[in-house]
Structure formats: structure tokens, C-alpha cells
Automatic annotation (TrEMBL):
<dbReference type="InterPro" id="IPR050266">
    <property type="entry name" value="AB_hydrolase_sf"/>
</dbReference>
<dbReference type="Pfam" id="PF00561">
    <property type="entry name" value="Abhydrolase_1"/>
</dbReference>
<dbReference type="InterPro" id="IPR029058">
    <property type="entry name" value="AB_hydrolase_fold"/>
</dbReference>
<dbReference type="InterPro" id="IPR000073">
    <property type="entry name" value="AB_hydrolase_1"/>
</dbReference>
<keyword id="KW-0378">Hydrolase</keyword>
<dbReference type="GO" id="GO:0016020">
    <property type="term" value="C:membrane"/>
</dbReference>
<feature type="domain" description="AB hydrolase-1">
    <location>
        <begin position="33"/>
        <end position="275"/>
    </location>
</feature>
<protein>
    <submittedName>
        <fullName>Putative hydrolase</fullName>
    </submittedName>
</protein>
<dbReference type="InterPro" id="IPR000639">
    <property type="entry name" value="Epox_hydrolase-like"/>
</dbReference>
<dbReference type="GO" id="GO:0016787">
    <property type="term" value="F:hydrolase activity"/>
</dbReference>
């Protein structure tokens, strides 16, 4: 992409682009190595706003609203992890970026892992932030929302008048200098996004592709050994109420050479709760690791080694 002026290089610059005929909203700015930021379920690129200015001092960020989310198109289609990973590959290509450090939070973490699995040649580093797809356990609320038929009653719980009332109260408290906590803002942003009918439909398709009554139904744990050649950072809040911290430790053990950072006193939205601290961890990771350069033979080597180990075990 073209160079940016000093005045706008760190601005949270929202733009649009068409990918496969669908309008996609994204934010980009900064300069340096490319960092792809993938938000969570019912989220948008707005989730990353607290870190964009600082991150832009060190990297070129690309933060899209995933299809079905935010201001991007919400077609009737495939919202699986694989489909979203392929979309992100095509978005990066459309923007002129060959490769990126891929950062994903919650659902975005699952998509980031899928991206590194499907397109390892385009993944320089992998950063998992309170990531989904690493175990069955998940918030009971998400299991409830995945119930068959619940989408028929969801409109009752997402009425515009609720937003109007809550925002009026919030504004009143704001005048008294009582601002809501960052994690409360993130939860409220996700909730209000579901007041739009098309977003709600896309949310339901997305949720059911990864969660059912038992919990998370998609796991990357059996393929994490393939990330051994990709520098990987795992970041988790020790008070995460949505995805257990045990998943962080298990992923760390499964990915050889990975780094694990536990942010004490943080929940699921740690990039909003402690943005400076989170950005420092991310930038340090980028600056102290060499970007992976993977090719077909690397995948062949890893898969071949596993097959050989299995044959040896059975001998």
C-alpha cells in the first residue's frame, strides 16, 4: 500500500474494500511489519482501537470487521473458521500484503490458528489472545445462545429501546465522572451489535459453527504441533470468565518454543483493559523474533515426522 503521512499514519483509519463482491470495512495505519488483528464473536475492528495508536508506532496494522460483523457485509453463507481464514488471506492479498503477524482474540484466535494451518506461508507469527478452539470448556452463556431455536426469541432480548435507556443512564453517570470499565464497554458493544437482524443471523451461524450444548466443538489441539516453526505468543487474562486459563497452559505445552504471558488482574478483553501493557508484550514479541518463512516442504516434514512416530509406536 502507499506510504502515509506523519499526520495520519497512526490514526484509526476506517476504510472499505470489496472482496469477492462483498463490502468489507477495515482499519489500517502505522508503518513497519504487517500485523493482522482478528476480533472476537459479535465484535468488530473497534475492539482493537485502544492499542492502535501505540501499535502504529511499530507496525502496519490491518484490523477488519469480519464478514457478518460490524460494518462489513453479512451475506447468507459460510461463517466457519476455514471460510474466515480464507477470507483473511484474500483480504491481505487485495491490500497488497503477502504475509503478516496474525493476532486473534476469542473466536479470532480460532481463526488465527486456522489461518496458520491453511496458509502457513503467509503467517510470520501467531498471537493467541484468550483464544477459542483450544478445549471444550466455554462460558455457559455461549452454550445457551447456541440452543436450537433460540434465534426465534433473541429479537425480544435485543430491542433498540434497551440501548437507548442504558446509554442514557451511562451518559448521566459519565457527567458525574463515573465511566464504565473497559470490559463492560466491550460486552456492551457486542450486545448492541446483535440488535441488528442481519448481524444476529450471522452471529447464530458463526456461533453454531464452533459451539454446541457441550461447549466448543472445534479444537486445534491435535494440529498445534504444526505451529512449531511459527513464533507463537499466547496471552491470557488470569480472570478470564469466558475461556479458562487452563487452555493457555495446554496450548503452551503443545506448541514447542511458544511464549506464554499471563496478564494478572485481566479478564477476557485484556487488550482493552490494559492496552499499553498488552501492546508492549505484542511489540516486544515481534521485535525479538524472526518472521517464519514456511514452504510446502516444511509442512511435508512435520506431517512426515508425525506419521513416522506413529508407525514406530505401533512397531
Amino acid at each position: 500500500m502507499g506510504s502515509q503521512t506523519n499526520q495520519d499514519r497512526h490514526v484509526s483509519d476506517r476504510r472499505t474494500i470489496k472482496v469477492h463482491g462483498h463490502e468489507i470495512s477495515y482499519r489500517t495505519g502505522g508503518s513497519g511489519p504487517v500485523v493482522l488483528l482478528i476480533h472476537g464473536m459479535a465484535g468488530s475492528s473497534s475492539a482493537w482501537k485502544p492499542i492502535l495508536e501505540d501499535l502504529g508506532e511499530h507496525a502496519t496494522y490491518v484490523a477488519p470487521d469480519l464478514p457478518g460483523h460490524g460494518r462489513s457485509a453479512k451475506p447468507r453463507g459460510d461463517y466457519s473458521l476455514g471460510a474466515q481464514a480464507s477470507f483473511l488471506r484474500d483480504l491481505l492479498a487485495a491490500l497488497g500484503h503477502d504475509r503478516a503477524t496474525v493476532v486473534g482474540t476469542s473466536l479470532g484466535g480460532g481463526i488465527a490458528m486456522q489461518f496458520s494451518y491453511q496458509h502457513p506461508e503467509r503467517c510470520e507469527r501467531l498471537v493467541l489472545v484468550g483464544a477459542g478452539g483450544l478445549g471444550e470448556e466455554v462460558s455457559p452463556l455461549l452454550k445457551l445462545l447456541a440452543l436450537p431455536g433460540l434465534e426465534l426469541v433473541m429479537p425480544v432480548a435485543f430491542q433498540p429501546f434497551i440501548r437507548t435507556g442504558v446509554e442514557a443512564v451511562t451518559g448521566w453517570f459519565g457527567k458525574m465522572g463515573l465511566a464504565p470499565a473497559p470490559k463492560t464497554n466491550e460486552m456492551w458493544r457486542s450486545y448492541t451489535s446483535l440488535m441488528d437482524g442481519e448481524t444476529r443471523k450471522a452471529f447464530t451461524h458463526t456461533l453454531r459453527s464452533v459451539v454446541d450444548l457441550r461447549g466448543q466443538r472445534v479444537s486445534a489441539m491435535d494440529k498445534l504441533y504444526l505451529a512449531a516453526d511459527i513464533p507463537t505468543l499466547i496471552v491470557w487474562g488470569d480472570e478470564d470468565p469466558i475461556i479458562p486459563i487452563d487452555h493457555a497452559h495446554e496450548a503452551h505445552a503443545a506448541i514447542a518454543g511458544s511464549r506464554l504471558e499471563i496478564m494478572e488482574g485481566c479478564g477476557h478483553f485484556l487488550y482493552a483493559e490494559e492496552p499499553r501493557r498488552f501492546t508492549k508484550l505484542l511489540v516486544d514479541f515481534i521485535e525479538t523474533t524472526d518472521a517464519a518463512e514456511l514452504h510446502t516442504e516444511d509442512l511435508n516434514r512435520l506431517l512426515g515426522a508425525e506419521a513416522a512416530d506413529e508407525v514406530a509406536d505401533k512397531a
